[in-house]
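Here's a chain:
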Amino acid sequence: MEKTVNQKAWFLILPVLVLVAFSAVIPLMTVVNYSVQDTFGSNKFFWVGLEWFSDILSSDRMWDALGRQITFSTIILAIEVPMGVFVALNMPKKGFWASVCLVLMSLPLLIPWNVVGTIWQVFARVDIGLLGYSLDKLGVSYNYTQDSFAAWATVIVMDVWHWTSLVALLAYAGLQSIPDAYYQAAKIDQASRWKVFRFIELPKIMGVLMIAILLRFMDSFMIYTEPFVVTGGGPGNSTTFLSIDLVKMALGQFDLGPAAAFSIMYYLVILLVSWVFYTVMVNLQKRDGA
């Protein structure tokens, strides 16, 4: 007997499809439309084809911002992933203190991005901020509004403080899912702590770590609010990342065509890297299941 398929389930997801169309597809089509046209006001548009894409790709401004963005994301991942795993390995596994640690680790994640930027903007000021004032009294030359290195250090430390908890919580969840039998077998074999981590814990949490790396890459590559509040992209353009440069182009200069082309290429880079991470995660799951 041929099995009949009930198509009525599509009506249950129809509202979601409509919502996605309004919140994602339609705005994306609007950006694509702007990217191939020019306007001189009065809602009159002129076809320019791929001219804006060519201009953006040949612009030193875009490549400089991309270099700063890649550098920032690389530094962030290099610090937060190992630190998050280290914190997760040293957190209590159960009991009262485990609950306390989970609550404390969750607190930075609950603070809105603009509030995080404001906190660190005040905290790092030389005149009234605890960090800036203390460093100045210790004789350390620190001023994130005038020194590029200080600005970078402030933004990086701020992001590490804000988001390392996410990696730690994900890694902690992965560690909690490892059966005790693995640890008992390692104890019988008299395996060292490093070997337990290398051959048991790390392989078992690799899938969770890939998700953490993907989330942190996407978020760090699209970061805007925190560095904009703290440094405004300065001093000069030293902390002008892709998102800040895009907003300046679209809203500050009102170059809608170049900004639309810029945003599409920005979107494609994030989509490509996310696809690579997704492919790696799928292969890891297949390998573990084999």
In short: Strands lie at 37-39, 45-47. The CA atoms of residues 22 and 28 lie 10 Å apart. The first helix runs from residue 10 to 35. The longest strand covers residues 37-39.
